[in-house]
Each structure stands twice: as structure tokens, then as C-alpha cells.
Amino acid sequence: MKTLRQLFGSNLQQYTMMLALIALVAVFQVISEGRMLTSSNFQNLISGNAYVLILAIGMVMVIVIGQIDLSVGSVAGFVGMCVAISIASHGLPWWVGLLLGIVLGVLIGAWHGFWVARIGIPGFITTLAGMMIFRGLVIWISRSISVPVPSEFSFFGAGYLPEWGPAFTRMNNSTLLLGLLGIGWFAWAEVKRRAKILSRGSQYPMWMTTVRILLVAAVLGYATWLFGSGRPGTSFPIPGVILVVLVIVYHVITQRTRFGRHIYAVGGNKAAAALSGVNTQRTYFLVMLNMSFLAAIAGILFVGRSTSAGPGDGTMWELDAIAAVFIGGAAVSGGIGTVVGSMIGGLVMAVLNSGLMLMGVGSDQTQVIKGLVLLVAVAFDVRNKQQGRPSIIGLLMKNSRTPQAVDKA
């Protein structure tokens, strides 16, 4: 048990959903007769779910501070429609329309942040009102018809990394480079992490660092091959690149910056955070503003993928984002949750959608299954946060103890 904790970290429970994700992929790969782990399927999986995963990045921060945002789908749909109309009807260049959409998202986030931080209205009520307002505005300004966007937007929503360099690699070289950079960065981070542990006087064998690097390198290497060896003209999707950049940026923000510490402090205990000098109003305001900023990016990516903005865009997106966050281990009461965990939760939902579709399961049954998965994941989280409740790993280790060990205990 001690070795496992050193190898994977002090909280083994955080790896449960990762194991569940791997198991889901393996099961669907067998049931679908090999159609799950294909280049085209995973490229579509990333491109088709990038907008929800981007929403989940902002949503985990909102949930950590103890709030909720029900307006993100409507905001994304409204921003996408405004961008499309500004270009199609007012003749703005596509890049100006894109910048306009991002600015609009920031302004909407400031609006929500004002009511939550300054007036003190709970985020649930504020964003419920926002959901109704912006859903109505989408239908109003679009007159219930779709509006096309320029072809340049397709690059952001459905594009791929370009091809270059020698052909002997037998895969897309941009994807290969991205994968090698990912492996190299993780190896460097692990070596640096080990040096930091040793500097504190603790023991951390080199073989553990090596095993961690090799495991992650194997996963990233296979993913690189999967995305880079598809049909000509395809590679790792551009929405995936944008998602990866955002995950890295927000992981650093939430885990390595003062603002990130303030987010968790406010979510853990608002009164104690205020007494320790944290500006709680500023934290609420910036987190809500950031959520709508990411919703604007998600809306722009979606219209780029679909090549048009429609009055129904964004419907129910907020529920998918919230589900991803809770499946990824965030606490209902706030104070707990990570960007990486939310990505794992979102990928679990994405793999479920993809696998069930490959099996021919209808959308109605898919919703039932996803709802049950969400309920079980949150129930598991609540159970294991209760005092004295062991994790699955703990139960397995307990049941595997020898009679002699039990007697000694």
C-alpha cells in the first residue's frame, strides 16, 4: 500500500475514474469489434466534445467556489449567433467577429459576476436568469433561423494540424512532435518533482520515477500514433490543441498561483478565507467572468465545426459540463475539484456517447445510462468523503490482508 501511494500519489482515489475510463474504452473496443480505437473515431470524439470539455474547465472553478452556472450553454449559443450575424449581416472580417465574440463573453461574465459578487445573489439564481435571457436573445436575434459562418471558422472547429517534414515517420509529423513534447515535458516534470522530494529529506527511489514516466509515455505514445496515423489530411484536431493549451494554462492557474489558492480557500470556507485576507468578492467576480469567457470560446468552436450558428445551439450544454465536473471528483459542497479531474470526467461521458453510438443504442437510452453514471459517481464521491469510509483501493487492500495480519491488528 505504501509503495502504491508513493507511485501514484497520496490520494489513490483520484485515479478511480481514470481506471474507469480505460476500462470503458477496452469494453467498447471489444463489443464494437475494434471500431472504438480508431483514428477517425477518436479524432471525432475530441472535435465533437471539445466545447463541453472547455466549459468543464471553467465550471470546475465555479463549483469549487460553491456556486453553479446554468447559463453557459445559452451564453455559448448567443455568442456564436452574434459572431455569425456580425460577419454575415454587417460585413465584419471573420477575425473581427471572433474577437467580438470573445469580448462579448467577457462582458456577459462581468454582468454575472456583478450580481454574484456585488449584490450577493447566488450563482444558481443569477445564471438561471442568464440562461433564460440569453436563450431568448438567441431566438430573437436569429429569428429562429441558422446563420452561416465563413470557412475560416472551420479551421478552429474542425481543422487538423498540418503535415510537414519527412514521410518515413508514417504519421502526421505535427502530431508526432506534439506527442514527443508531451512525453518530454512529463519526464522533465517528474525528474524535477523527485529532486524536490529528495531536497526535503524524503526518500523517493529512482525506479518509481522511471515507472511513472514509462507508463505515461506509453499512453501518450499510443495516443500520438492513434491520432497521427489516420487517413491522409487528418491528424490531431485543432479543437484538441486549443483544449490542451487551456488545460495547461488553467491547471497552472488553479494549482500554482495565488488566485488559484484563493479559489480553493473561498470554496473551503468563505468566512475563514475573508478573515485571512482573501478578497472574496473579487474571487467570485473573476471566476464568473472567466466562465462566460470560456463559454464564448466553446460557442465559437462549435459554430466553426457546424459551419453555422443555430437558435438551438448550446441547449443542455451546461448539464454536460456539470456532469463532467462531478464525475471528475469535484465536491458538491465546493472546495474540491481539479481541471485534470474534470477532463477525465468529460472524457468518460464522451467515450460513453461514442461507445453507445457504435453499439446502436438510441439517444433516449444513452441519456438514461449517462444519468445513472453521474448518480453513481457522485454517490461514490459522497460515500468516500464521509469519515471512516475507505476507498475502493483501501477495501481491496483490507480484504487481501492475511489472517496473520488481521490477528496482529
From TrEMBL:
It is found in: Cell membrane. CDD domains: TM_PBP1_transp_AraH_like. It is a multi-pass membrane protein. It comes from the Bacteria. It holds the Pfam family BPD_transp_2. Coiled coil: none annotated. One of its GO terms (molecular function) is transmembrane transporter activity. GO terms for cellular component: plasma membrane. InterPro entries: ABC_transp_permease. This is Xylose transport system permease protein XylH. It comes from Arachnia propionica.
